[in-house]
Specification:
heterodimer, A: alpha+beta, six-stranded antiparallel β-sheet, three-stranded antiparallel β-sheet, B: six-stranded mixed β-sheet, globular
């Protein structure tokens, strides 16, 4: 059974946002990593890139396939999780601890379009 | 049209395989993990269900002359029990399929073709057979096929299956009577490791699959790692590095097209290609980072698209991101700097030999 954490915001495409003040930490959910299998590469944006809610910002890749990542929020990328460059498998070990990018959100009201833990649990059934 | 199933379909489900559509068959892509299965074949032993492959028997007084006519490699005067790799070509030089030809004797040849091409190939073979004193038979429905691959394959086939195989040298085969039927055992494979391919009835294939799995000495391995294994040692996959539109010369497989042979379908086109010079070629590319080049991605030089990736992975055996790619000939020289567009970014790489890992066949 995939882990789902209360208090995070979720997208239907299986990304999450953990909000701390004006920043959102974005990653993929435990359900997403379990479906994907062993992650062998994470294609991340660069710092200072602008990301837009609903648009592609990178990809997580298994041996066989690349899965595009869609940003749940808009804003500026202020940090990427560089540990994933050498150890992409950290996502399999703990997807919620190993976020992919930290975004300074330009429009926090976009969070209202995302799912809470209970609603997200339903689409993982 | 719904996919066909091999005689081991129920067994794949019982092993919780992830199933995909491949070449018109519902096949396992992985049982547990592609990398684990890949490493089992490189370091120990794995068994693949390759029953989806097609088999065509050619018999008759003119069987050898006919095979010489449709096949790029040269089987003339070969000893019985020898196997050849090569292609069947269209008159324009594009590839109908790549295949193995097993020579039983001058009047009996066994052709092993790709699953996705069985109908196309057989129709083409029958068409070519007009005017030759031969009989062709599509035996694809009859045969199941197991591939036992890896450095321990010989020991496993002898001990677990009880089939003597030590004396077989690479690219030879023998027929054996086992449990009241005639089976074919060859020292061949598609992984770059030592190994065997075993052709028999569905019942024989099921019994021997069960023996191998129950022994615990041979890991069930699926198509996912079959592709990563063949890719690392530079073996082509029809549909990626060979197509109806691509010749063996362009694929870098000229050594399997014997232009000194008297005649074969497509020879004139290859001779012309060689004389005029190729315009494109399949090469290897090694990238600097870990980003993964995949089928269809663009290869770029100075902002110009100069080709596309045919197969690519982060190599499981070496950890490097590498690919095979079809490039315009002026960029195909070893050492040429190129870039591959992966998602939004261009990644630096260099043209290398399309063998990313050394084969370890037992000659």
């Amino acid at each position: 059974m995939a882990k789902i954490i209360e208090g995070l915001y979720y997208s239907e495409s299986h990304e999450y946002v953990r909000v701390e003040g004006e920043f959102g930490y974005v990653g993929i959910t435990d359900y997403a990593q379990s479906q994907l299998g062993n992650v062998v590469y994470v294609d991340m944006p660069e710092e200072e890139d602008e990301v837009t809610a609903g648009e592609e910002f990178g990809a997580v890749e298994s041996v066989k396939a690349a899965s595009d990542l869609f940003s749940p929020v808009s804003g500026e990328v202020v940090e990427v999780n560089s540990a994933l460059e050498d150890e992409p498998e950290l996502i399999n070990q703990d997807a919620f601890a190993n976020w992919i990018m930290k975004v300074r959100m330009s429009d926090p009201s976009e969070l209202e379009n995302l799912l809470d833990a209970a609603a997200y649990a339903k689409i993982c059934e | 049209m719904s996919d066909k199933r091999t005689c081991l379909y129920e067994r794949h489900l019982a092993l919780n395989a992830k199933m995909v559509s491949f070449g018109g068959f519902e096949m396992p892509i992985q049982y547990t993990d592609i990398a684990d299965e890949h490493n089992a074949v490189r370091k120990a032993c794995g068994v693949f269900d390759v029953s989806h492959m097609g088999e065509v028997l050619v018999t008759g007084p003119e069987a050898e002359r006919f095979v010489q006519h449709i096949f790029t490699n040269d089987v003339a005067g070969a000893p019985e029990g020898k196997i050849f790799y090569g292609m069947m070509l269209h008159p324009h030089g594009g590839t109908v399929d790549d295949l193995l030809v097993y020579k039983e004797n001058d009047e009996r040849f066994f052709l092993v073709i790709n699953a996705a091409n069985i109908d196309k190939d057989y129709a083409w073979i029958v068409e070519q057979a007009a005017g030759f004193d031969v009989v062709t038979e599509n035996q694809s429905e009859y045969y199941g096929q197991l591939a036992v691959q890896g450095p321990l394959a010989e020991a496993v086939v002898e001990k677990v299956l009880g089939l003597e195989c030590k004396e077989l040298v690479f690219y030879t085969f023998k027929k054996m009577e086992v449990d009241g039927e005639t089976i074919i055992l060859s020292r061949t494979g598609y992984t770059g490791e030592d190994g065997f391919e075993i052709y028999g009835s569905h019942a024989f294939t099921q019994r021997n699959w069960d023996k191998l799995i129950e022994s615990g000495e041979c890991k069930p391995c699926a198509l996912g790692c079959r592709d990563t294994l063949r890719f690392e040692v530079g073996l082509p996959l029809y549909g990626d590095e060979l197509t109806d539109d691509l010749s063996p010369l362009e694929a870098g497989l000229g050594m399997f097209a014997k232009l000194d042979k008297e005649e074969f379908v497509g020879k004139e086109a290859l001779v012309k290609q060689k004389a005029e010079g190729l315009t494109r070629k399949v090469v290897g590319i090694e990238l600097e980072g870990r980003a993964i080049p995949r089928h269809g991605y663009e290869v770029v030089v100075n902002d110009e698209v100069v080709g596309h990736v045919t197969t690519g992975y982060n190599s499981i055996s070496t950890g490097k991101s590498v690919c095979m790619a079809l490039l315009k000939i002026e960029y195909a020289k070893l050492g040429t700097p190129v870039q591959v567009r992966i998602h939004r970014k261009l990644h630096n790489g260099v043209v290398v030999k399309k063998r990313f890992y050394e084969k370890s066949y037992k000659k």
